[in-house]
Amino acid sequence: MVGKKKAPKRGKRTPIGDRVQVLMMMHPDVIADIKQVGIDEHRAAWDVMEQAAREFLKRRKAKRIS
Fold first, then answer.
1. 15 Cβ partners below 8 Å, 6+ apart?
2. CA atoms of 55 and 16, how far apart (whole Å)
3. Residues with Cβ within 8 Å of residue 48, at least 6 apart in sequence
4. What is the enclosing helix (H) or strand (E) of 22?
5. Helices of type H across 1-44
6. What span, in angstroms and rounded, lies between the C-alpha atoms of 61 and 32?
7. How many CB atoms lie within 10 A of CB 66?
8. What is the pLDDT along the chain (66 residues), one digit of tens a residue?
9. Which residues in 20-57 are b (16+ Cβ under 10 Å) and which e?
10. What is the enclosing helix (H) or strand (E) of 65?
11. DSSP 8
């Protein structure tokens, strides 16, 4: 007999919407710091990184316009 499969629960670690996965290489200390920020703020690490990337791109775009 085959048991019933449970649907995965959407949690803070599950991407929301139409996001796609990206593989990046970073120093282990940076990764640990990002994870700690996520724990401290009750957010997923991908959410912390997405916010940081958006802020970086916003500053870069403003600098190019100036």
1. 21, 46
2. 19
3. 34, 37, 38, 41
4. none
5. 28-40
6. 28
7. 5
8. 567 776 666 665 566 678 888 899 999 999 999 999 999 999 999 999 999 999 999 999 998 998
9. eeeeeeeeeeeeeebeebbeeeeebbbbbbeeeeeeee
10. helix 45-65
11. P
CA 46, CA 22: separation in Å to the nearest integer? 10
Q: Which tokens go with 47?
A: 């959410």
pTM: 0.71
| 10 to 22, 34, 44: CA distances (angstroms) | 19, 21, 12
The predicted pLDDT at position 33 comes to: 97
Return the pLDDT at 18.
82
